[in-house]
Design goal:
Chitinase A, domain 3, 2 domains, 13 helices
Amino acid sequence: MGRAVPSTSLFVMFPAILAVALARPSYAEQTEQVTFDLADEVVCRLNTEAISKRQVEERMDQIIDKLVGWKHSLEAAGQWNVEMRKKYDELYIPPFRDALRRVVRERLMLQYAKADPNIKVDQRQYERHLKETLDKLRAQGLLNSKNFTLGEVEKRVRDNMLLEAFRWSNFSTVTELPSRPEVRKYYQDNVNRYQRPAGIKVRIIRIDRIVTSKLTGERTTQKDAYQLAKKLRDDVKSYSGKFEETAMMYSNDEETKANGGLIILNPKDHYFNPEGYNAKLAEALRGLEVGDISDVFELGEKSYAFVKLEDKREAGPAPLDGDLYEEIYKTLSQQKTRKEEDVWFRKALSKSLVVHVVEGVEKPLPVEFFFLEQKDETATEPGKAPAPQAKTEATPKGKG
């Protein structure tokens, strides 16, 4: 207990809240003509703390934006009726319940964290994160709007850091970190999930017939574009010049020249299928071996180019190293941490009063409601869909 928190604090709730605010008009814009905002309606009470509908919807990510937008479009077209409301409820209620489970879990942790003198937030980290958050809100014109006043932002940033500190102190232990054999076993058991297609890695040097000056914007014609491309290709072919350096100095392809001519369609995977990228480039590559350089060819109507086949790979499983190892390691760490957290959460719930509020009437929520999302044991694994949720009494009122 009371261990130091990593210096790179990860915000838990604030990014989702900011994304909601940027994706649709603020609640102030949506409800400025009414006296009471239904989003402020209390839908749950956790011990002495009230949880509003707004707090839950903020954790529904982009689902709520799409649903509200759909509803408003139907209302504007005069097509909002009983049947559409039923469909809306079917789409709205399951993610609302999942979001409510997350909110109650986090708010209960915060209640315990605030009561524990050993859980502290580093003031320097707090000030740094607060400044970063305020800068983002200010740049988006959201600072001092509804739900984003200075006091509210300060509270959210501190709560996020306190929640992280609580989780780190209680559920992250060195002895519980995944071992290399565990990572390898997970990889072998799920190897079909990590298949990758065949592909090639290519560098290109492109010489345009018409070049636009970065300084003046003036367009000029390179009459000797083909001769220049051929000379550069011959220099590289005879090893008097390196392909990467030549690309950085002479290529007119601004997207690739900074990378030494390397074509990068996916930052995480530099291999691609040339047939689906560019027919003329694919034709130029045909028959080349790794390390070979193509002849100069026309690339479109305004450019000449030549390419180098940097590497090729066959279809099959990705090797267990680098990003993939880190991905699996992170998945296993989260699963282990989650188990520890679940044990704590179940025990804490048994000592807490949690009620769902419907039209002012409070109904207790059973402990099992907060673990329904885990009925499918593979739900948290990458690429797996969660199982359908069982019906419960936790249904919001006044949706949208």
